[in-house]
Specification:
The complex is a heterodimer of chains A (337) and B (364). Chain A contains eight helices and 19 strands. Chain A is an alpha+beta fold and 337 residues long. A six-stranded mixed sheet of chain A has the order 6-7-8-3-9-10, sandwiched between helices. A five-stranded antiparallel sheet of chain A has the order 13-17-14-15-16, with no helix packed on it. The mean pLDDT of chain A is 91. Chain B is α+β, with helices and mostly antiparallel strands. Chain B is built from eight helices and 20 strands. In chain B, α2 crosses α3 and α2 packs parallel to α4. The chains are: A alpha+beta (337), B alpha+beta (364). At the A-B interface, α5, α6, α7 and β14 of A face α5, α6, α7 and β16 of B.
Amino acid sequence: MAEVRLESVTRRFGDAVAVDHVDLVIADGEFVVLLGPTGAGKTTTLRLIAGLEKPDGGRVVIGGEDVSDRAPSERDVAFVFQQYSLYPHLTVFENLAFPLKSPARRMPKDEIAARVNKVAAMVRIDHKLANRSTALSGGEMQRVAIGRALVREPSIFLMDEPLSSLDAKLRAELRVELKRIQNEIGATLLYVTHDQVEAMTMADRIGILAEGKLLQIGTPREIYTDPVNLHVAARLGHPHINLLKPGLLPCESVPGDARTIGARTEHLEIRPSATNDANARVDWIEHLGDQNHLHISSDGEKIITLADPYAGINPGDTISLSLKNPLFFDENGHRIT
Amino acid sequence: MSEIRVENVRKVFGDFVAVQASSFVVEDGEFLALLGPSGCGKTTTLRMIAGLELPTDGKILLDGEDVTFNRARERDIAFVFQLFALYPHMNVRKNIGFPLKSQGMSRAEMRTRVEETAKLLRIDHILDRPVSGLAGGDRQRVALGRAIVRRPKCFLMDEPLGTLDAEFRSIMIRELRELHNRISATTIYVTHDQLEAMAMADKIAVMNHGVIEQFGPPQEIYDRPASMYVADFIGSPPMNFIGFNSGLKKGGNEIAIDHVNIRLPDLAEDVAPGEMALGVRPEHIRLRDEGGLRGSVYETEYLGTNQIVSIATVDGIVKARVPADRAFSHGQNVGLELDSDRLSVFVKETGRSVRTRAAGPAHG
């Protein structure tokens, strides 16, 4: 395993700057997730590290060596894509063994078998080694695709939305599995996604990308509780952070230059109130199974927060709503701390 | 607007029973979700109501009228598949008006109808734009407009949001439900996504192998699942099952697991000794240092406001949803305190839930 270092890496396509002076260090054995919408530069960043793109400026350093001018095959990197591209005519075993059979490796048969068996157990597909890859479910195919990256024992794993084509249940399962596997082998892993739950639950650190720029990098907790600007604050959190004008809701010590207040569930205090101090009304309650979202309106503004199902709050109720240590942002959207 | 009544409807394809004798009523203005995995019979049920498939047995009544053998176009139903199918060469107005044109409606009336529909969906400002340049959300609204402009008696929707990414889907879920609140058209909505069903439906029918396992309001299905199958299908993460071996007595309210006594809602029936499962939702577990069912922290998933903590216990992994302000470390020993009023008990062999006197009216 190895450390990956991007030093002021830039990649342009015509006039568009896909990756804009990105500085990023992924420590040996670290799981970093780049989170951003389509077009933020996530995939291009991965491709730059893999060597599938050449930077227009800056350096890519893997394990202390500048690899900016090296071909993909010389970088010892394994790439897992969203679409698992397995060989349909081969069995699971043969698919897993394929990267080891390259003539350049000259790996003996019994060693190949040993490695494949070990990896198959790790990705929990060892009971289906003899099956054709086409006879597998979506989740199993993606396990094989991840396994095929693992058998090579590369220095770095790059994963581009590998779970996004799977259904919700399977995705939740594989998130936990992938984190476990990464932990077990101490892999250096860079993973890109637009799914905030994947980022929050798997990453040691999350990097927030927007328009080719790395806005902030930190642990999930840091990014969630301590965002540097409005954009970052809005990337994480379900329901979405409420962005309110100062003065809408009672709040202690609002900085003078605050133009926007960011309020998540934990920043909102709700008290049932039938009296005159009520400043908000519950429009409706959205039942999401595991959680309920309270849709509230206050002076024409809409606010959504997680509801405690036992609080006894019902649609149509008037409530008194106040803020408790929310996030403040200035006119440029920068966080005021 | 109208009521849909399905009476003992069954559908067999060769040897395969796609839908076993099913009966349910969707009341006028109600939103029903047919929920289940692929192959459970939900789409076949919908297609029989639409008239795209004839039932092997049983009756379908639309507003009291037997339509079992009527053709699809004689049923005054709008069927919405993937919302994205628009005519790319027409503008928004023509796309929405298309179903009226084929009905032979006068131009003036068509114009009024299309504009009313567009206003309802808040897309009246883009009526003369080509659909090709529209953002995803507006395209969905246009497609919806085309379905509601005819003012059919009811809507049948087959996974209309299936292909959207998570963020956009939650926006459309909200809009579909708000639209339903405004026009109150009887709706049957087929999905495999429990979140869509929970968020939008007045009632949910959970299907499994052609059988409706439970039919009721979302919160009731969530709080009092009729079977382990339903309990596992609804919720994310789903309900935890902790195994124990015991008989149960009517009126009893306590069991022991791993030498820890656990209070239950009062049981409403006797159950012979055997393998049982205690069902507990992740958010009905609190973690504490001392006492409770013991386990060790295996994994935490941080979600911002709260976190999912996976705990290895004597009977496998149990997941708890707890506030995120407390950090847990791998291997840490914790006790599980269960919210007694919210527990379910199941008979493992059949998967059915044991009746309790608990859980009074649905909360929330």
